[in-house]
Each structure stands twice: as structure tokens, then as C-alpha cells.
Design brief:
- The protein is an alpha/beta fold.
- The protein is 31% helix and 24% strand.
- The chain starts with a helix and ends with a helix.
- 41% of the residues are buried.
- Bound molecules: NADPH dihydro-nicotinamide-adenine-dinucleotide phosphate (NDP).
Length: 480
């Protein structure tokens, strides 16, 4: 009896150890992807180094991987050049005493193009990192096969989550001062937040608006001392501390005021204002990867030690997606460089030799260069009358400006979608700084702005930054 009990316990123990071992192995097999180079011969749309994101992290990674001889494709995302394209002067980029953020990023893009890096002006909407090559789908459904993947998707502006924010988005609420400041000439606005981004927005708004109130929720600003000093020197700005925004109020058309509460006295009051500029920090753009990669509590991707390796071999992360401490462009660039070197080590180890790279050249994903654009630019009232009002086809107008990074970023998307619908819809772009006569007849408070005309009448307006799939869906409804 005693012997059989010992036997049963021993078998039970052995079984438990066995089950635990197989469980561990099966968990491991998810991240222990099967790297089999011979599988690549019959595969199309191969990208040896795919980089999602085109801020300082992505564009530094691409310089290194392209120079190392790996065909590199940068999938630009909705904001090519990243957040620096929305800042004014950068004074802490080594070697450049003072340079405009958009100019710095443009230089980086030019340098990349000269080196032969390919740019895809689209977003990635879905990934599968449980298989190798890693599968990436563009917003339009093209499947790409990445031998290595560098995630440099950065972070997205945080929202306040108060009543009125969503309702008045684009009608008095925005997060891009550099884009929309000119629409608030002579008006009173508030900037919410006390970090460097909020300070930047105050400086960007100052030359345009009548007065700016900066609302800081705590007792002090989080911005660097240099930025605080600059904000305090702005004549038409006031800083209020311990103020929380409770509600954004307006009429049918746009914002008229806000309700704020003093966090110490709990006193609530209403302020009459015309615009709310949000700058309350950023969250990492990592949602698409959460089923595959180890992340921390703040949804930042966890990287290993001094490398940029993630929990999946062959996938690397760099910049604001993995860094919640430094969050500086220079650090992101350095991390991008490390990620590119790590990707190179991975490819070498996998047996991806220069000879093999040559053999596979025809299987690479080719970012096709299309012919002449069907998008027409107009600027005068006469052109507007002839091309828009009298058009027998539906017309979609893209209102953009050189000072608006997200507008510029959308031009290639507008162009790509125009090629698909050119026989059914007319596509027109209007640079608002060169078309005053057109703009004064159309209510514009936020750009990019897309307006659809049918039979000479406005039938739809859209102020969203869209990827190719979203814009296709938007236009589809006006096509017979
Ligand atoms: P930060 O996280 O630095 O600052 C966010 C600010 O928003 C803080 O003042 C925070 O208050 C406030 N905030 C957060 N949530 C709310 C809320 N619900 N209501 C009201 N206020 C809120 O983010 P930033 O985007 O400003 O900067 C991110 C990083 O980018 C930083 O490292 C910054 O240094 C860098 N950067 C540098 C620039 C430069 O050098 N010129 C320009 C722009 C950014 P609290 O402090 O109380 O948490």
C-alpha cells in the first residue's frame, strides 16, 4: 500500500515536471522563430531591413543598414520625419548650433535618399511576428516579408479625455500649433501642459495670437529651464499653475471657452477662449506589437541590456517606443544606430551573405515609382470656378501649407489614392498660403482639410490625417 502510494506520487511528480518542461518549450517556440534562409528563394516582397517609422531613430537606423549593404525600406507612417517636424528651433543637436526641426529632418531624409534608402509613404496596419520572415501588411493590404524589423514608431500625443475634446477636435481643439497657429490671428488661446512640448507651442503661437494662457496642472513646469525661461519672456503669454481643465465648451461651430478647476482651492471657473492647444505628453505607439513583444507597464517595448533586441530575435526597437527616461532626438538616433548594427549581426548569423543578397535581388520589395501625378494645384478664383464648381465629376480638394508637417506628409498619400480614382474623381490641392481668394470662401480652421464638391456644392469635409486605406474609404463613398 505504502509502496504504491510512493509510486503514484513519483509518477505525479515526474508528470508535473514533464508538463512544465513542455509548457516552457512551447512558450519558447513562439519567440524562437525558425530562421530558414532557403525558404526565401520563392518569396516575393522581401525586405532585408524593414524600418517602421521615420523620426530620428528610424532615419539613423536606415543610414547604417543601407551603408552596411542591406536593402533598407523605411515605412514612413502618417508623420514623415516624426515629432521634430512640429518643433521650431533645435539647439541641442550636436554640430548644429540652431536648426529648425523640419529642416533637420529634411536633411536626414535627403541623406537617406542619397544613400539609396527606399521610402514607402504608407503605414503598417498589421504584423505577424510569430513567423519568419516577419509579415507586415500596409494599410492597403500589401504583404511585406521582413528579414529583420526595426520598430521606430515613436509616440503619439496624449488626449485629455474631457467632455468637448472629441466634439471640437479640428474646430478649436488641436495638438499642432505650428500647423494651426495662423488660423488664430488676434484670438485668445490656451496651451494645456507644462512640458517642453507645451513651451514650444507657446513660442509657436506667440507671433500669431492675441494672448496665450498656459495651464499647468501642478505647482511647477516640467519643461527644461531653458524652455521655461523662454516662455516666461513671451509678452503675450501668462502661466497659470494648479489648473486642471474640466470641460471644453462651444457652440455648433467651434470652441468658445473652457471650464477649469484650481486643484488647491477646488474653485471652478469658465474662461472665454477661441482655441485649445494640447501638449500633455505622449504615449508610445506600440499597440500593434502588444501580442508579440514583451512590454512594460507603460506599454514601452522592453529591450535587452545594452542592445536594441526585443523579446523576438530579429525584431529591434529604437527611440520613444522603448525609452521613457531620456526621450531626446539624439538618444533616439543613437538607439536607431544600435538597432541597425544589431539587425546586421542577426542577418550575418542567419547566413544572409552578400552573395545571397545578390541572388535574391529580384525578390525584393520594390517601392514603385509612379508616372506623372493626376493631382492638379490651383490658386485663383477663376481656376476654382472652372475646376471645382463647373466640374462634372466629384472633386476632392486638399488644403495644405508648407508650415504644416502633417499636411505635407499627406500629399504622397493624396497622390497615391488619386492614381486609383483619377477616372472618376478630380483631385486638387490648394496651398492655403498662395490661394487667399479660395480660402476666404471656405471655412478653414485646421489643416490638413479635405473638402468634397459635387455639382458645385460641398458634400463632405474631413480634417483627419488619413493613411491610404482610410482615404480610399473616404473617397469611395462619392464614386458611383
Ligand atoms: P512631458 O511628459 O515632458 O510633459 C507633459 C506635461 O503635460 C507635463 O507638464 C504634465 O504635467 C502635463 N500633463 C500630463 N497629463 C495632463 C493632463 N491630463 N492634464 C494637464 N496636464 C497634463 O511631455 P512632452 O511632450 O512635453 O515632452 C516629451 C519629451 O520630449 C520630453 O523628454 C521633452 O524634454 C522632449 N521635448 C523636447 C523639446 C525640446 O528640447 N525643445 C521639445 C518637445 C519635447 P505633470 O508635470 O504634472 O505630470
Amino acid at each position: 500500500m505504502k509502496k504504491s502510494l510512493i509510486f503514484i506520487i513519483s509518477v505525479g511528480l515526474l508528470l508535473s515536471v514533464g508538463i512544465f518542461y513542455f509548457y516552457k518549450q512551447s512558450k519558447k517556440s513562439v519567440s524562437n522563430i525558425n530562421v530558414e534562409i532557403s525558404n526565401l528563394n520563392n518569396m516575393r516582397n522581401i525586405i532585408p531591413v524593414a524600418i517602421i517609422g521615420s523620426g530620428p531613430a528610424g532615419l539613423s537606423a536606415s543610414i547604417y543598414s543601407q551603408r552596411a549593404g542591406y536593402h533598407t525600406v523605411v515605412i514612413e507612417g502618417k508623420k514623415p520625419g516624426g515629432q521634430l517636424t512640429e518643433t521650431t528651433y533645435v539647439e541641442n543637436w550636436p554640430s548644429r548650433k540652431k536648426i529648425l526641426g523640419p529642416v533637420l529632418m529634411n536633411d536626414m531624409i535627403e541623406q537617406n535618399k542619397e544613400l539609396g534608402v527606399s521610402f514607402l509613404s504608407d503605414t503598417i496596419s498589421k504584423v505577424n511576428l510569430n513567423t519568419w520572415p516577419f509579415e507586415l501588411w500596409t494599410s492597403e493590404g500589401t504583404k511585406l516579408n521582413a528579414l529583420t524589423l526595426i520598430i521606430a514608431t515613436g509616440s503619439a500625443p496624449r488626449m485629455l479625455k474631457v467632455p468637448g475634446e472629441h466634439e471640437y477636435w479640428g474646430r478649436g481643439v488641436t495638438s499642432c500649433a505650428i500647423c494651426d497657429a495662423p488660423f488664430y490671428k488676434g484670438k485668445n488661446v490656451v496651451v494645456i501642459g507644462g512640458g517642453d512640448s507645451a513651451a514650444e507651442q507657446v513660442l509657436q503661437l506667440s507671433p500669431h495670437v492675441k494672448h496665450i494662457t498656459m495651464l499647468v496642472r501642478g505647482e511647477k513646469m516640467r519643461a527644461s529651464q531653458a524652455m521655461q525661461d523662454r516662455v516666461k519672456a513671451v509678452d503675450n503669454a501668462t502661466i497659470l499653475y494648479n489648473k486642471q481643465i474640466k470641460q471644453i465648451i462651444g457652440d455648433e461651430a467651434h470652441v468658445k471657452g473652457i471650464e477649469i478647476q484650481d486643484s488647491k482651492t477646488k474653485e471652478t471657473k469658465t474662461m472665454d477662449i477661441d482655441g485649445v492647444f494640447l501638449a500633455i505628453g505622449h504615449d508610445p505607439s506600440t499597440g500593434m506589437f502588444k501580442d508579440y513583444l514583451e512590454m512594460d507597464q507603460g506599454n514601452y517595448i522592453v529591450v535587452k541590456g545594452r542592445t536594441q533586441e526585443t523579446s523576438v530575435p530579429g525584431v529591434f526597437a529604437a527611440g520613444d517606443v522603448e525609452d521613457h527616461v531620456y526621450m531626446q532626438a539624439g538618444i533616439a538616433a543613437g538607439a536607431g544606430i544600435k538597432a541597425a548594427l544589431d539587425a546586421g549581426f542577426f542577418l550575418q548569423k542567419a547566413g544572409f551573405t552578400p552573395d545571397l543578397a545578390k541572388k535574391l535581388k529580384d525578390n525584393y520589395f520594390d517601392v514603385a515609382q509612379a508616372g506623372p501625378s493626376p493631382v492638379k494645384a490651383i490658386s485663383t478664383e477663376q481656376e476654382f470656378e472652372a475646376e471645382v464648381i463647373k466640374s462634372d465629376k466629384p472633386v476632392i480638394l486638399d488644403f495644405w501649407a508648407n508650415h504644416c508637417p502633417s499636411c505635407k506628409a499627406m500629399l504622397p498619400t493624396f497622390d497615391a489614392v488619386a492614381r486609383k480614382f483619377a477616372d472618376k474623381v478630380k483631385f486638387i490641392k490648394v496651398n492655403i498660403d498662395e490661394a487667399e481668394a479660395i480660402v476666404k470662401n471656405v471655412y478653414v480652421l485646421k489643416i490638413p482639410l479635405f473638402i468634397v464638391y459635387k455639382d458645385g456644392e460641398i458634400v463632405a469635409r474631413n480634417q483627419n490625417v488619413m493613411d491610404r486605406a482610410q482615404m480610399t474609404e473616404f473617397i469611395q463613398q462619392f464614386v458611383k
